[in-house]
Amino acid sequence: MKGIVLAGGTGSRLFPLTAAVSKQLLPVYDKPMIYHPLTTLMLAGIREILLISTPRDLPGFQRLLGDGTHLGLEITYAGQEHPNGLAEAFVIGADHVRGGPSALVLGDNIFHGAGFGDLLRTRAAQVASGEAGCVLFGYPVRDPQRYGVGEADDRGRLLSIEEKPAHPRSDRAITGLYLYDHHVVDVAAAVTPSARGELEITDVNRAYLDQGRAHLQDLGRGFAWLDTGTHESLMEAGQYVRVLENRQGVRIACVEEVALRMGYIDADTCHALGARQAGSGYGEYVMAVADQFRS
Question: For the Nucleotidyl transferase domain, which residue ranges apply (predicted)?
Answer without folding.
Answer: 2-239
